Amino acid sequence: MNTAASSAQQINVLVVIDTDYVKTHYPNPSKDPARPTGIDHHSQYMICTDPRGGIDKQGTADLVFSALPGDYVSYTGVSIYNNSDDAVIVYGINYWKGDNVFNQFVPNLVVRNGAAQPDPTTKNGLPAKPMQQSFSSFDSKVMKAGTEYFYVNFALYTLADGENQQLYGYFYWDPSIQVK
Predict the structure, then answer these.
(1) Which helix (H) or strand (E) holds 176?
(2) pLDDT digit string (tens) for 142-171?
(3) How many CA atoms lie within 13 A of 50 on its CB side?
(4) Which of 92, 78, 71 is nearest to 172 (CA)?
(5) How far apart are CA 43 and CA 51, in angstroms?
(6) Mean pLDDT of all residues in 65-86
(7) Whose CA is closest to 118, among 109, 129, 103?
(8) How many helices (H) and strands (E) does the chain have?
(9) Pair 132, 115: CB distance under 8 Å
(10) 56 or 68: which leads in pLDDT
(11) What's this model's pTM, rounded to 2 decimal places?
């Protein structure tokens, strides 16, 4: 028997948001994280690791991937600007309808004391300089088989004065997962 088929697997989903699209199409977003503004599926690009095989619609807002009960799923987000101009923080993943296949999602923070960062004193940024950096994700363990529709909530921050990012608004959209 294939060990990967019987062992819990880690599935990482990276959400990239085209913040220019969001700001153009949603100029008056919610400022309340409990009541985010719903958006269409034209500004989100999800990419995930594939330990189970069977990814469909990679790079779209409607990513489909395979998971089994016991697998771990982590969502993390970034703006198309790599969070340097506009910034995105995924702050919630919530059940909407269908089968409840996920356990409760929880926020996790990892702090790397020696994360590789480009060296600003060199022509090409190399060699990288180790610096402290925080990484956040929203994680859950898959509970059971079924199809769940859920909301991905994210906060969008814009570069206000060339130096500081300020809240633009809170948003969500509604992808789904099928667990076999």
Answers:
(1) strand 176-179
(2) 999 898 999 999 999 999 898 999 999 999
(3) 10
(4) 92
(5) 26
(6) 94
(7) 129
(8) 2, 10
(9) yes
(10) 68
(11) 0.90
Contact present, 79 and 86 (Cβ < 8 Å) = yes
Q: Which of 167, 151, 135 is nearest to 30 (CA)?
A: 167
As a whole number, mean pLDDT of residues 85-94 equals: 96
Residue 142 has what DSSP assignment?
B
Cα 165 from Cα 171, distance rounded (Å): 17
Structure tokens at 46: 């999800």
Work out the mean pLDDT of the chain and round it to a whole number.
92
- Residue 26 tokens read as 């949603």
The one-character DSSP state at 64 is B
Take residue 104 and report the two structure tokens written for it.
Answer: 């409760």
Write down the residue that tokens 């859950």 correspond to.
Answer: 140
CB atoms within 10 A of CB 56: 11
What percent of the chain shows pLDDT beyond 90? 79
How long a stretch of residues is the chain?
Answer: 180
User: Who's near 120: CB < 8 A, 6+ residues apart?
Assistant: none
